[in-house]
Write a structure and sequence with these properties.
heterotrimer, A alpha/beta (421), B alpha+beta (121), C alpha+beta (495), A: 421 residues, alpha/beta, FAD/NAD(P)-binding domain, C: 495 residues, alpha+beta, 22 strands, globular
């Protein structure tokens, strides 16, 4: 009990694995991963489709393959991990952080550590959260729950399916259920554009002639015991259902892919400052949160759309934690960041240039589809960098890399603005 | 006769909008960012192919299903035939990631390979 | 032959069954649903009303305040979460202030203890999130919030532990009055019973029609609700009522006993069995609730669930629809007792009503009809303690996991519910048989992710503990609300 770890990583999904590997490589000796599920890999274990790893490994991997590569690294580096272990609480005791865990073998356990990396990931928004009127029968699944049943447990969720929301998991599940013999009647998306990657619309919907109904939402769930159908309706610009456009689609299953929410209950209880825009912790360039020695990375910070960027961000947090325990982490904040109203957030929110090697990558999203636009970065009136792209869409996280040299010599706020080309 | 097709490249998450012009044997691809886009564009109008990720039954494993995929892209029109074949397969744990589960599936030259290791119980 | 058959295992039927088990009667508790307390008893406001608004000349007035007082002991015995948080009826103007005084006077007549009329400053000191224009309130410290589904479950459990036989998935289809006994026919078996208690909720009029000439009718009036995340559970500390109108108590804002926030209900006539929520009404509830607690407007993003329940409002020649009363009596058909029209404040009144039904109706019938009355020497009013893992100290947690490692495995992350608790709810008397049954009993899946993460695990645990295949585990109703639709990979084997 008197042992003090260098770094404890909360969560053994893609972010946690990459963070632990990087922390160890960067000089943290005693690293421990705590995972609540029965194996490492997190959500990747159920994401059996390909398309992971292009940035990290330069090849197209499936989720489990991507996970296994990182799990192998963890094993090669002899990083210990505890499975089926739930973190109940994280306490900031100043010098040490105290983690309260339980599992079947060791019971209630207290783990002290110099640094912590929060990598708990995110959860899916539910039908309750979006408040679809109607009945509350069986047969309504979040896309991720259905994915787990089908891909890992080998059970079908249903045979006649409607999907609400065109997030990537929804699109992937449309194909997956089709391949397993279900009929996918439609994918409804309330926005006038899809929230998933374009490639997924092509290879998951178009390939199988599954209609994508943009500007449509579900306005009533039918069926008292098991879902029997849904009423869908077209929506206007204000996303309000238009009377007279009701269409009834019979189905036995409704999948929801309506957004992800970072899981920050532990962070909140511990007193970590949360950014209302991301629902994740306010973080620095090396992903340190408002509590010194507590770092965060991956979907707990911001919902990513590519696991490669999760790994990249987790690498930063791992490095940060290692620097922190070696008393090598500067807390000299050079500037903070902000955005105009056309961008929904920016990560990181604080930068200590002392900790930056050659560049900082800023992550952000646009609120609406933006064509023929650029994103400019300003200190006051001074434009220091420009991000170009053919088209910015809310579904795709923008990474805007700015060399350290361009960021030096300023203070105050670095402001990101969406402007005409 | 020249035909033009607008496609979205699925080689990577960028999703480049391709314009593929077919003039007999001559196929031109525009709008790509990298050379994968050219390959995809040409294949998509001549012989569209996809990688199929799915699962097979695994016995005596930690989980009842093992994720697998085709080792390379296979002709799109064979997707359901391949699914039918794969659905009949049963393997026994332990399995290692990359193990060949079905060799040369339906003569496509692609193997069905395990995409994770599965310990036995 | 049963001495007593109780039709309906909602809060009324279950409570009366448990009271009957104080005696050595052979009691059948029968319900058409796959679980006890599955209709209005689980979809209501979860409020224990102090009793100042029930008319003092009616049964509602007679039983409400008494029931409220009895709640503390009952919940302690049965181990049901209950919080006497108090209630405020708020007034926005002088007219409403006058109304508060009327309520106060009526409350005194009903025997409601400790009421106070509060003025502007005191009200806002008590509840900082109330609308600025609220100028006063009637405070009733005895009002509270309860977990209604746990109450019914624990009542049924206690009843069964004390000898009552529970029959679920059993819909009564016909009743024959054989003079010496009633013959109850159902979809799966017949029951003979000397006395019948009709506590069939919204269907009590239909059930009565099976034996007697209709003398009342039940009107379904739907009420819709929202539940908010625990993050905003402390926006109010007491139950906030608007000033009541002829339509009822109005849309309230209340903390739940588990720390969430609840708003609702409205009241609109509908068909029996309609528990769907509807867009316009849901919107309306949001707007109306925000009139008393404006800060709610900023927190609509924290809603985790909406639901609806139907009150069963009695229509009788002498009642108008809004002025009705409970129908609690031996009906014109001898030995057939109606407990009908059992709407608000039914949940609150039930301890007093059950006492009355047993002592003033059932026992006198027994004496009259020579049905033997013998006390049950083994009657135990208490349930086996329910372990709420999350509420234990770290030492207690350690101890418990050592004793039973299943308590070391968290299944529901949002509510921190362990496998040990889930297994316990499955194996108790009147235990959980479905995912919803587990949810009602120990809150697994009740949190912000609404079972997204834990429902596959809960299905697995139910499958293992009940020894049924995974794809036979239902969400609620046996078979009909199936969750899984067979296995993937159709292979000619038994895999």
């Amino acid at each position: 009990m008197n042992k003090v770890y260098d770094t404890v990583v909360l969560g053994g999904g893609p972010a946690g694995l990459a963070a632990a590997v990087e922390a160890k490589k960067a000089g943290a000796q005693d690293v421990l991963i705590l995972e609540r599920d029965r194996e490492l890999g997190g959500i990747l274990n159920q994401c059996i489709h390909n398309g992971f790893g292009l940035h990290t490994f330069n090849e197209q991997l499936t989720g489990p393959e991507y996970a296994e590569r990182f799990i192998d690294m963890v094993k090669d580096l002899n990083i210990p991990y505890e499975l089926d272990t739930m973190v109940l609480d994280l306490e900031d005791k100043g010098e040490v952080k105290r983690i309260h865990t339980i599992n079947e073998e060791d019971g209630y356990n207290i783990i002290d550590t110099k640094s912590v990396i929060l990598t708990m990931g995110c959860r899916e928004r539910t039908s309750g959260a979006i408040g679809i009127p109607g009945y509350r029968p069986a047969g309504i699944f979040t896309a991720g729950t259905a994915q787990r049943y089908i891909n890992m447990e080998g059970y079908m969720a249903g045979k006649k399916v409607v999907i609400l929301g065109s997030g990537d998991i929804g699109l992937i599940m449309a194909r997956r259920m089709t391949l397993e013999g279900a009929e996918v009647e439609a994918v409804c998306e309330i926005m006038p554009y899809s929230n998933g990657l374009t490639r997924n619309i092509v290879q998951c919907l178009d390939d199988y002639d599954i209609p994508l109904k943009l500007s449509h939402t579900i306005t009533f769930i039918h069926g008292k015991d098991r879902i029997e159908g849904v009423t869908i309706q077209k929506v206007d610009e204000k996303l309000q259902p238009i009377a007279g456009t009701e269409e009834y689609i019979p189905c036995d299953t409704l999948l929801l892919s309506v957004g992800l929410i970072p899981e920050n209950e532990i962070s909140r209880k511990a007193g970590v400052e949360i950014d209302k825009r991301t629902n994740g912790p306010v973080v620095s360039e090396l992903r340190e949160t408002s509590i010194p020695g507590v770092f965060a990375a991956g979907n707990v910070v911001q919902v990513h759309d590519l696991v490669d960027f999760v790994s990249e961000e987790a690498g930063l947090a791992g490095k940060g934690a290692a620097k922190f325990i070696q008393n090598n982490l500067s807390d000299n904040i050079s500037f903070t960041t902000e955005t105009d109203n056309n961008l929904s957030y920016v990560i990181p929110q604080e930068i200590a240039l002392d900790n930056v090697e050659d560049a900082v990558t800023f992550y952000m999203r646009v609120r609406n589809v933006a064509e023929n636009k650029v994103i400019n970065a300003y200190f006051g009136d001074k434009k220091i960098a420009t991000k170009r792209g053919r088209k910015f869409v809310p579904a795709e996280m923008i990474n805007f890399k700015i060399p350290k040299s361009k960021l030096e010599g300023y203070e105050g706020k670095l402001r990101f603005v969406l402007e005409d080309k | 006769m020249t035909t033009t097709k607008e496609l979205i490249c699925i080689s990577c998450p960028m999703g480049c909008h391709l314009k593929v012009t077919v003039d007999g044997e001559d196929i031109q691809v525009e709008g790509n960012t990298c050379k994968n886009g050219i390959t995809y564009g040409i294949e998509e109008v001549t012989n569209p192919k996809r990688i199929i990720p799915t699962t097979v039954i695994v016995e005596n494993g930690k989980l009842p299903r093992l994720p697998v995929k085709t080792s390379e892209a296979v002709p799109k029109e064979l997707i359901f035939d391949i699914m039918n074949e794969v659905n009949k397969v049963k393997v026994k744990a332990p399995v290692k990631m990359g193990d060949i589960i079905v060799e040369n599936i339906l003569g496509t030259g692609a193997n069905i390979i395990a995409t994770r290791s599965m310990e036995s119980l | 032959m049963f001495d007593i058959a109780i039709i309906g295992a909602g809060v009324a039927g279950s409570y009366i069954a448990r009271e009957c088990s104080r005696y050595q009667f052979k009691v059948a508790l029968i319900d058409g649903e796959s679980d006890v307390g599955n209709q209005i008893s689980m979809a209501n406001s979860a409020i224990v009303h102090a009793g100042f608004d029930a008319p003092s000349n009616k049964l509602k007035g007679k039983f409400n305040a008494a029931g409220c007082i009895m709640y503390g002991k009952v919940c302690e015995d049965l181990d049901v979460p209950f919080n006497r948080c108090g209630s405020l009826v708020v007034a926005h103007d002088e007219f409403e202030m006058l109304k508060l005084h009327e309520l106060y006077k009526n409350g005194l007549q009903n025997g409601v203890p400790g009421m106070q009329i509060l003025f502007q400053k005191e009200v806002h000191e008590m509840e900082e999130n109330l609308a600025d224009d609220i100028c006063g309130a009637l405070y009733a410290p005895d009002a509270g919030v309860v977990s209604p589904f746990e109450l019914v479950v624990k009542l049924a459990e206690n009843a069964v532990d004390n000898g009552v036989e529970l029959f679920l998935d059993t819909v009564i289809t016909d009743i024959e009055n054989k003079e010496d006994y009633f013959l109850l026919k159902s979809n799966n078996q017949e029951f003979k019973a000397k006395i019948v208690i009709n506590a069939a909720g919204i269907y009590a009029d239909d059930v009565y029609e099976m034996v007697g000439d209709p003398y009342f009718e039940l009107l379904a009036r739907k009420g819709q609700y929202f539940i908010f995340d625990k993050e905003v559970g402390d926006l109010v500390n007491t139950v906030i009522f608007p000033c009541p109108s002829e339509k009822g108590k109005g849309i309230l804002v209340a903390p739940t006993v588990h720390g969430n926030l609840l708003i609702g209900p409205d009241a609109n006539p509908t068909e029996k069995g309609d528990i769907s929520t509807t867009q316009n009404e849901l919107n309306n509830i949001k707007i109306t609730a925000a009139k008393n607690v404006p800060v709610i407007k900023e927190n609509f993003g924290k809603i985790i669930r909406n639901y609806a329940g139907t009150r069963n409002t009695p229509i009788k020649a002498e009642f108008t629809t809004t002025d009705g009363d409970f129908i609690i009596e031996e009906s014109p058909v001898k030995k057939f007792v109606n407990v009908a029209g059992y709407e608000s404040p039914g949940l609150t009144s039930i301890p007093a009503v059950s006492f009355y039904v047993l002592n003033e109706i059932i026992l006198p019938i027994c004496r009259r009809e020579n049905i033997e009355i013998k006390e049950n020497p083994n009657f135990n009013p208490k349930n086996k303690k329910h372990i709420y893992f999350n509420d234990l100290s770290s030492e207690e947690k350690q101890e418990l996991i050592k004793e039973n490692p299943k308590y070391g495995k968290v299944i529901c992350r949002c509510e921190t519910i362990t496998e040990g608790e889930i297994i316990d709810t499955i194996h108790r008397s009147a235990g959980a048989k479905s995912v919803k049954g587990v949810k009602k009993r120990c809150r697994a899946g009740m949190g912000r992710c609404q079972g997204g993460f834990c429902s596959p695990r809960v299905v697995e645990i139910l499958s293992r503990e009940l020894d049924i295949p995974m794809d036979e585990v239902s969400y609620d109703k046996k078979k009909k609300s199936y969750i899984l639709n067979g296995k993937t990979k159709v292979v000619d084997s038994n895999e």
